[in-house]
Amino acid sequence: MKKYNVAVVGATGLVGREMLKTLSQRDFPIDQLKVIASERSEGKKIQFEDRELTVESVREGTFESIDIALFSAGSGVSKEVAPQVKSAGGIVIDNSNAFRMDPDAPLVVPEVNGEDLREHQQIIANPNCSTIQMVMLLKPLAEKFGLKRLVINTYQAVSGAGKKAVDELIEQTKAYLNKEEIKKENFNHQIAFNAIPQIDVFLDNDYTKEEMKMVNETHKILHDPDLPVTATCVRIPVIFGHGESLNIELQNDFKIEAVKELFSQTKNVEVIDNPAAEEYPLQIDTENNDNVLVGRIRRDNSVENGINLWLTANNLRKGAALNAVQIAEYLVENNLV
Amino acid sequence: MKKYNVAVVGATGLVGREMLKTLSQRDFPIDQLKVIASERSEGKKIQFEDRELTVESVREGTFESIDIALFSAGSGVSKEVAPQVKSAGGIVIDNSNAFRMDPDAPLVVPEVNGEDLREHQQIIANPNCSTIQMVMLLKPLAEKFGLKRLVINTYQAVSGAGKKAVDELIEQTKAYLNKEEIKKENFNHQIAFNAIPQIDVFLDNDYTKEEMKMVNETHKILHDPDLPVTATCVRIPVIFGHGESLNIELQNDFKIEAVKELFSQTKNVEVIDNPAAEEYPLQIDTENNDNVLVGRIRRDNSVENGINLWLTANNLRKGAALNAVQIAEYLVENNLV
Asked: Which residues form the active site (chains A, B) (predicted)?
């Protein structure tokens, strides 16, 4: 089997480390592996299976002979460095917001629109974590019943904001319990024992960037630019795993049992929906589970063809690293590298 | 000024203690004051201003000469004991679910439907905490623009489940940080660093009782039994203050500025809505604030006349104790005792 030269850019971050773990767990066919981060981390050692890798920073020639570079180092780095990979002949799979709405960059969840990779021009965008887990459910619903309108509310984990954000939640929580001063650096408001109804910056329309990512990325991934979608994104004091509550209007009538059956037959989706036993998806359940978990599936009688449901997924894996590696796998399996 | 003989039933609980505090803060005209709890708490001392009160349990004659009894001891106690107060000639203001949907019992938020108290038959119901804060905003919207449909998502604090639930969140959080075993007693799932998409028990329609309270109580309070409403209620690891995200379809067109102006003129509602300064209502802001806080007010372009907003309020005060005391004040001011 052919092997590939792979680079992970942002290798020391939460998502970068998860990318390395995922490449190993899924036996991605790697020849050379480069781990790249900022100059601050240069020289650090990272163990990958039986290889001891040394963290490099980006220099001239870094990406020569690299086939696939997985990026998770923020959109500034992506904008600057991704073109270098492309010039050197490699493919970028970028976890940042830099190229997601670029018409030349496919925005891909392999189970949903893997086919879009066939048109790639060496830069491929990995969608926003909250969007990825949601479209895994919207796609089968769209195909079987048609989508009419979508109201999204998120309950997002702090790990979506990186390792420092996780540390801040932990430190603030300890300070609260010890009645000490609560220090804020990464979050603009206290996150310990509090929720913050803002993720990413505000835009001119008074929605946050995160909320508009969910709207615009959903349009692009589902190839349905006119689908009415609205979102409210809220950060809650949970460490790992994003929760989402979806209120969906379908085009056509449905039986609730048929929706449950549809999801139970959808690849990488798991139905956990047993009200009698008080079983439904939890965010803590996603720690060692790569599936999108869905439950609380029930008819919404306040509108025609309405449905409510609740889903959770691991925001660092299916929401980021795993999806990026799945894109790489799709490229390899379909001779698109 | 006339003074009244008052009893607080469930005086040792989170809401009961808040009721006593509120009665004092608002100088409710009290003559005799009885503090009542279960036999377990009998004999405990409670300080109320300069009086040292002794906790009593319910016995024959307990409610003789009581004018107003504020109940917060669970619906079992309310069902059993409230009729005794009524027989003795007193008025019950009940914070439990026992009488809320009873057609003979007014279900009242004084700012919204205080007039309903004029028809009281000695038992008056205090609505569910999540419903109270929401109808404070729905009423002015209904009057000015008309309501068409409502999608509710809640982000509810653990204190809504009582003192033991708060203790459990704290204990689980400590255990998590110390890598010790997480013990569950009050919540069916881990609540530390997790969200639970279930509040109260499940009903036959797969909604929870809390979700259907929000639907049915809203219908009753707004006198609009056909208003399409759907709700998803989620417990998050926050101690005090409920957050809610509302997606509202109005009957008539509106200007966003007119909605903000409307709320800013609504009594006991405070608009905190400055995206440029990243200001919006937080749950921790409600600790010493009795108002309903509203922000993130923005047009929802996914539907005609749509609006999204976010609100928070103190679930123990406006959501429970304060609203109950305000009902008592309304009775006194309007000679309805």
From this structure: 129, 242
Element (H, E) at B300: strand B292-300
Reported residue count of chain B is 337
For residue A63, the SS3 value is coil
**Domain segments of chain B as ranges:** 4-127+320-333, 131-314
Bridge partner residues of B53 (DSSP): B46
Q: Which of A336, A129, A153, A151 minimizes the C-alpha distance to A232?
A: A153
Average pLDDT over every residue of A148-166? 97
Indicate the fold that domain A131-315 takes in CATH. Dihydrodipicolinate Reductase; domain 2 (3.30.360)
- Write out pLDDT tens, residues A20-64: 999 999 999 999 999 999 999 999 999 999 999 999 999 999 999
B129 noted as active-site residue = yes
B317's tokens: 């005060």
So what's the ipTM on this one? Answer: 0.96
CB contact under 8 A, B193 and A284: yes
CATH class of the domain defined by B4-127+320-333: alpha beta
The residue of chain A with its CA nearest to that of B297 is A206
Is B16 within any annotated ligand binding site? no
Phi, psi at residue B72, to the nearest 5°? -150, 70
Three-state DSSP state, A302: coil
CA–CA gap between residue A133 and residue A244 (Å, rounded): 9
**With an 8 Å Cβ cutoff, are B283 and A238 in contact?**
no
* Annotation marks residue A129 as catalytic: yes
Assigned CATH class of B131-314: alpha beta
CA distances from B73 to B16, B69, B201, B319 (A): 8, 12, 18, 15
Residue where the block lists tokens 């379909």: A334
Taking CA–CA distances from B198, the nearest residue in chain A reads: A278
Partner-chain contact B202 A150, CB within 8 Å:
no
Residues of A in contact with B310 (CB under 8 A): 197, 232, 234
CB under 8 Å to A320, separation ≥6 — which residues?
A15, A18, A19, A72, A95, A126, A129, A132
- Tens digit of each residue's pLDDT (9 = 90 or more) over B203-249: 999 999 999 999 999 999 999 999 999 999 999 999 999 999 999 99
Q: Is B13 among the annotated ligand-binding positions? A: yes
Residue A201 burial by CB count (10 A; 0-12/13-18/19+): exposed, middle or buried? exposed
SS3 call for B79 = helix
User: Which of chain B's residues have a Cβ under 8 Å away from the Cβ of A174?
Assistant: 177
Task: State which amino acid sits at residue B83.
Answer: P
Report how many helices (DSSP H) and strands (DSSP E) chain B contains, helices first.
8, 13
Contacts of B50 (CB under 8 A, 6+ apart): none
Tokens for B9, please give them.
């039933």
Tell me the three state secondary structure of residue A183.
Answer: coil
Give the integer Cα–Cα distance in Å for A68 and A326: 12
Interface test with A, best of B177, B200, B284 (most A CBs within 10 A): B284
Chain B positions touching A228 (Cβ under 8 A) are 301-303
CA nearest neighbour of A56 among A67, A46, A65, A48: A46
Contact A273, A264 (CB under 8 A): no
Which tokens sit at A175?
Answer: 């300070």
